[in-house]
Design a protein that fits this description.
The chain has a single domain, classed as Nucleoside Triphosphate Pyrophosphohydrolase (Alpha-Beta Complex). The longest helix has 17 residues. A hairpin with an 8-residue loop joins strand 3 and strand 4. The strands form two sheets. A four-stranded mixed sheet has the order 5-1-7-6, sandwiched between helices. Strands 2, 3, 4 and 8 form a four-stranded antiparallel sheet that branches. The protein has about 140 residues and is α+β, with helices and mostly antiparallel strands.
């Protein structure tokens, strides 16, 4: 079997002074909190994919604010080698609700995050400087 790399996107979504997290409905990490995100579809731009995933998982429209980074450790996802591109996405609507892969959607203060799936804690840590500025203006 040919091994392949899969491309994913994750969104750090500041909302009403907190960070939006989903409780995962499916494995891996079922029941743990994670950033909204998912796999990029063939022919899709990563910026479009991250906005689609935010809309599907938490019901919010948004706009890409900033690239946080590319996360490529082969061990970051138990399903295989999944490279994730993480963005800060600013909400442009307020209809927050659990969608497709989300069991629940919750807001958490930046300084009181729960245990997170994948390497999402590192993504948030890498974005903290920008997040403090954004959250203080909400």
């Amino acid at each position: 079997m040919e091994k392949k790399i899969t491309l994913a996107v994750d969104a750090i979504l500041p909302f009403k002074g907190k960070i939006v997290l989903i409780k995962r409905k499916y494995p891996p990490y079922k029941g743990l909190y994670a950033l909204p995100g998912g796999m990029v579809k063939y022919g899709e731009e990563v910026e479009s994919a991250v906005l689609r995933e935010v809309r599907e998982e938490v019901g919010v429209d948004g706009k890409v604010f900033k690239l946080v980074g590319v996360y490529s450790s082969p061990a970051r996802d138990p399903r295989g080698h999944v490279v994730s591109i993480c963005y800060i996405v600013l909400p442009t609507s307020e209809n927050l609700r659990a969608g497709s892969d989300a069991k629940e959607v919750e807001l958490f203060p930046l300084d009181a995050l729960p245990d997170l799936a994948f390497d999402h804690k590192k993504m948030i840590q890498d974005a903290k400087e920008d997040l403090y500025g954004i959250l203080s203006q909400m």
